TrEMBL record:
Signal peptide per UniProt: 1-23
Entry's Gene Ontology BP terms: ERAD pathway
Gene (name only): SEL1L2
UniProt protein name: SEL1L2 adaptor subunit of SYVN1 ubiquitin ligase
Alphabetically ordered keywords of this record: Membrane, Signal, Transmembrane, Transmembrane helix
Length: 688
């Protein structure tokens, strides 16, 4: 393995100093995002020099031994004691193998320790400790640790982002058969980040990655075959790739390991990003805590839920979740009782698995008619947890909860009819309940609907529908956690780190990531791509997002063709995209743009009446369009009136049609300015 120089560089980059922080854990995490802690330079240098000396010594010894072996091979002499020499050589080789095994075992142990710390980490300090262990394990040749280090370099997790070093490490790992490295090299080749832009090579890397077991490569290939990106569009091949990933995700979801992740759109107004509804602002969180302490039951339950699964940017904290649920349960909240039952049923650090406690709290909630409590009792009877298996009782409770609209109960009913558990198999009824649950976003219901469409079970087979459903399930994978880290990196000003994470998710087919990546690229703040490549790449990503139904992206494509960003100016194509956005998505911006093009005859036949109609439609569609539409119509009517007067009285004297030549190409802006000035003058005179 040749990554010694890389590992030394990684360790220098990764070095972190552990500082004591006494603020609350939530405040610590939010404030620490801007801070990359660093270990003292002297300590790091001593550690590195020790490694370097040890590795150099090892190389010298190995070199001498190789020379000695070569000499022995060149001067083989048959003597009677050759058996003894062979025995000595075998003993020596055995000692070497044993030492190497101990070295490998130590690396594995360090990697496991680092992984455990990382999984339990709630602060930057703990994460830094984990990555130091990964660095040591990587130096000992642990491939998994090296993968972690390469990812850290690529995404800039704990220090300066170094894509060149990451690529060298990935290439070294790929030679060892690492499917994660192959996936990463495919991704970098597909964007031309740090490597030559080569879609053919990217496809080869993804193919090898998927063959090696990379779920991300499987998902990328599924999306490519679904959309026909550099491959022939093939629904069946896409179905095969997506199904493998969906099976993996469904297995995790059945074990309650799936955690929903908020996907923030950067295309929203900048002033709204800091208080995005997808991420709970620190001040609002403090206010909610105050209300909860003052006895607001609804807020107590909400905070308990957020901490239970770690949503809205909050840490997953079972102790805090149980604390708020208990407070709300004492106040009589049936939802809180049901969630306490759920915690005891699944088991965690704050509430160890206890079927009796789960039954107690579920019963308390069910007696109040709570759907979650009824569903919980159904689960206990269905799986025989703390009570004998009783499908009839389970069916009864699931039906009661489903009637109240609880999607998990609807899914369980569908599953009972799908599998024939306690009832006769009935795929039509199963489909009905799966569909009802899927409308509320129940992921397992979506998965089983996909299974039914893929196999034609109880419904007419539809490859396209099955793929779309599988894709929705696949997007719940743990890799979606990068949405949060990418968003916080963007907020903290780490544009390159944010872009590289969004770009990877975009490659996997996430529409939100595609629009976010395009948004960052068109801002030209990123440094990991040449500026001349940014607009073409942004146009490509806007196009992919538009195909997936993003109206804003469709308007953006129109803008790019109108102004000639990343492509040639093409008013006709721009008008086509604006028309799609206006007709299909009722976009006020698209209507306004299209009206302007009809008014001036840009790429389409000039039509003042249609322009006037589109301006009115834009104003009716969005309140934000009222003022722009008012000025546009004022200008249009004024120009139209002046044009009529001048053409009627002074047709021969005034050459109205040559206004562009006389006043310049932006004469209409001067007219709008004149109208505004007249209005201000009239308003002032009226006040006086």
């Amino acid at each position: 393995m040749k990554p010694l120089s890389l590992l030394i560089e990684i360790l220098i980059i990764l070095g972190v100093t552990i500082k004591t922080i006494e603020a609350e854990k939530h405040n610590e995490r939010r404030k620490e995002r801007n801070v990359t802690t660093q270990v003292s330079v002297n300590q790091t240098q001593q550690f590195l020099s020790h490694i370097l000396e040890r590795r150099k010594l090892s190389k010298v010894i190995s070199k001498k031994e190789n020379l000695l072996d070569e000499k022995k091979n060149h001067h083989k002499i048959r003597i009677k004691g050759i058996q003894n020499k062979d025995l000595l050589k075998r003993s020596k080789n055995h000692l070497k193998t044993h030492a190497k095994k101990n070295f490998t075992d130590e690396g594995d142990q360090l990697f496991k320790m680092g992984t455990k710390i990382l999984q339990q980490s709630k602060s930057q300090k703990q994460k830094a400790e984990a990555y130091l262990l990964f660095a040591k394990a990587a130096d000992m040749g642990n491939l998994k640790a090296m993968e972690k280090m390469a990812d850290a370099l690529l995404f800039g997790n704990f220090g300066t982002q170094n894509i060149t070093a990451a690529i060298q490490l990935y290439e070294s790992l790929a030679k060892e058969g690492s499917y994660k490295a192959q996936n990463a090299l495919g991704f970098l080749s597909s964007y031309g980040i740090g490597m030559e832009y080569d879609q053919a090579k990217a496809l080869i890397y993804y193919t090898f990655g998927s063959a090696g077991g990379s779920m991300m490569s499987q998902m990328i290939l599924g999306y490519r075959y679904l959309s026909g990106i550099n491959v022939l569009q093939n629904c069946e091949v896409a179905l095969n790739h997506y199904k493998k990933v969906a099976d993996y995700i469904a297995d995790k979801l059945e074990k309650s390991e799936g955690i929903p992740v908020e996907k923030v759109r950067l295309t929203e107004r900048p002033e709204n990003l800091s208080s995005n509804s997808e991420i709970l602002d620190w001040d609002i969180y403090q206010y909610y805590k105050l209300l909860a302490e003052r006895g607001d039951v609804q807020i107590q339950v909400s905070l308990g839920q957020l901490h239970l699964i770690g949503r809205k940017g909050l840490d997953q904290d079972y102790y805090k979740a149980l604390y708020y649920f208990l407070k709300a349960a004492k106040a009589g909240s049936a939802n809180a009782m049901a969630f306490i039952g759920k915690m005891y049923l699944e088991g965690n650090a704050a509430a160890p698995q206890n079927n009796a406690s789960a039954f107690k709290y579920f019963s308390m909630a069910a007696n109040k008619g709570n759907a979650i409590g009824l569903h919980g009792l159904g689960l206990l009877y269905f799986y025989g947890k703390g009570v004998p298996v009783n499908y009839s009782e389970a069916l009864k409770y699931f039906q009661k909860a489903a009637e109240k609209g609880w999607p998990n109960a609807q899914f369980q009913l569908g599953f009972m009819y799908y599998s024939g558990s306690g009832v006769w198999k009935d795929y039509k009824i199963a489909f009905k309940y799966f569909y009802l649950a899927s409308q509320s976003g129940q992921p397992l219901a979506i998965y089983y609907l996909a299974e039914m469409y893929a196999t034609g079970t109880g419904v007419l087979r539809s490859c396209r529908t099955a793929v779309e459903l599988y894709k929705g399930v696949c997007e719940l994978g743990h890799w979606a956690e990068k949405f949060l880290t990418a968003y916080f990196a963007y907020k903290d000003g780490n544009i390159d780190s944010s872009l590289i994470q969004y770009a990877l998710l975009a490659e996997m087919g996430y529409e939100v990531a595609q629009s976010n990546s395009a948004f960052i690229l068109e801002s030209k703040k990123a440094k990991i791509l040449e500026k001349e490549k940014m607009y073409p790449m942004a146009l490509l990503l806007w196009n992919r997002a538009a195909i997936q139904g993003n109206a804003f992206a469709r308007v953006k494509i129109g803008d790019y063709h109108y102004y000639g960003y990343g492509t040639k100016k093409d008013y006709q194509t721009a008008a086509t995209h604006y028309s799609i956005a206006a007709d299909k998505y009722h976009s006020a911006q698209a209507m306004f743009n299209l009206a302007y093009m009809y008014e001036h005859g840009l790429g389409i036949a000039k039509d003042i009446h249609l322009a006037r109609r589109l301006y009115d439609m834009a104003a009716q569609t969005s309140p934000d369009a009222h003022i722009p539409v008012f000025f546009a119509l004022m200008k249009l009517e004024t120009v139209h009136m002046l044009q009529d007067i001048l053409l009627f009285n002074f047709t021969m004297r005034w050459k109205w049609m040559k206004l562009d030549n006389i006043l310049g190409p932006y004469w209409d802006l001067f007219v709008i300015g004149l109208i505004v000035a007249v209005l201000i003058f009239l308003l002032r005179n009226r006040r006086e």
